[in-house]
Amino acid sequence: MDDVKMLSVGIDIGTSTSQVIFSHLYVENTAGFFSVPSVEIKKKEILYQSRVYETPLKNVNVLDIEAIEEIVGREYRTAKIQPQQVETGAVIITGESARKENAVLVLERLSRFAGDFVVSTAGPDMEAVIAGQGSGAQRYSRLYNQAVANVDIGGGTTNIAVFENGEIRAKGCFDIGGRQIRVSPEGEVLYIGAGAEKVAQMEGLNIKVGAKADKTQLLLLCEKMAGILEDLLEFGGEEDAARELQTPGASDFRLPDKCEIKYVCFSGGVAECIYRHQEEDFAFGDIGILLGRVLGKSKIFRNFQVLEPAETIRATVIGAGAYTTTISGSTIAYTEGIFPLKNIPVLKLEEQEEEDLWCGRGSIKEKIAWFLQQSDSENLVLALRGKIDPEYEKLKDMAERTADVLNENLKGSRPAIIIIEKDLAKVFGQIVRRRVKQARPVLVIDQVHVENNNYVDFGRPIMDGLVVPVIVKTLILG
After folding, report:
1. Bridge-partner residues for 22, per DSSP?
2. CA–CA separation, 342 vs 333, rounded Å?
3. pLDDT, tens digit (0-9, with 9 covering 90-100), for 380-407
4. Choosing a second label site near 340 at 20 to 30 A (CA), which of 38, 91, 301, 302?
5. pLDDT digits (tens, 9 = 90+) for 252-290
6. In this model, does residue 469 exceed pLDDT 70?
7. Cα separation, 331 vs 324, whole angstroms
8. How far apart are CA 165 and CA 366, in angstroms?
9. Is the Cα torsion angle 324, 328, 334, 337 positive or negative in sign?
10. What are phi and psi of 385, to 5 degrees?
11. Structural contact between residues 448 and 470, judged by C-beta atoms closer than 8 angstroms
């Protein structure tokens, strides 16, 4: 079986900057000739990177959709790539841009424009993880079996993701960034973000829109922001100030027991000002340079080993283009012709609920009906953990009970979609297919991890139908 090369795009619409990147993802069967296929994305190759654009705004609350579309269209033309050629990838809207009034519309229009299986995604948790992947922090943690924190400091927010041996161990997002205060060329304060306003109140600083920018006061504000990040990395988010600045929709940043951060990596636009000296205080019309200088002299550099990342300002867009796609297991079951499927919300059963189903007890009929109503969706992904080598009769009973409850709750011919973490999808899916209504398509895949509050996109099967490309994402806006 030949390996497959997929063309992927990453489009990042951030608080301060926007970028486009095209990559090739190389999907390979890593199993031996007589083994069950094991398909993975083994290599990522960047083909084209756009320049870094300032994110177009109509006003402080509204993104300029037409200008953003023009930028993306121009980059497609420059790269000589047609939207129909793109097979996977993501449009990700990050930082304060995700809170703009028309953020949802921007995502919808760009994802339709950019390619058939380019997904729209937002949410601080996902941004934290893919920035850490794009910067190289995740790879470093896997190579050296250490805990590495990636601190991605953009215009409006700072995302922190802690990786240990390649696995995500903690994540969070805070309203700390270089564009939290904007300054005019004449030195006048033009804008104060919610995070900066809270920090100013904490420190008793007098910073007001329309007033002259006082460098001394702005440095004090930056020092407080840096101090909050120091405490997060050292103590794991116990400080009240950190909780005050937590971005809406972000996970609580909590370090697990025995997870001690050894290395710190900075990415994002402010990271450029940490690793490389900038002469002018307000060269970018904000406090990013001041914040970078303060962080460069902070305790973080004394208490941790600070790595220089593979990417700084491009970490998120590289993550969006090269790391958002994953591959299902190879023993799966699906009905032909149902792909692609987009924006299907995930219902993951609690461990006890799933155990009750395996033991023939209880029902999840009411929970599924409630979830469909709450998510305002006509479908869902039912997520199960599964069991290792269950007895066939137990597996058959579980699959039939699952098929019955989906039949009762899904209208018409909506597909029955199930993700199982353990390697059970083929047999489970065959039983479900026999049990559901004849008109109802079925998709059962395994070896993909999802959680509640995730949404899933499924691409068309590749490698002669052996595996399905999957993107797991969050959609938190406003």
Report:
1. 9, 48
2. 18
3. 999 999 999 899 999 999 999 999 999 9
4. 38
5. 899 888 889 999 999 999 999 999 888 899 999 999 999
6. yes
7. 22
8. 39
9. positive
10. -80, -35
11. yes
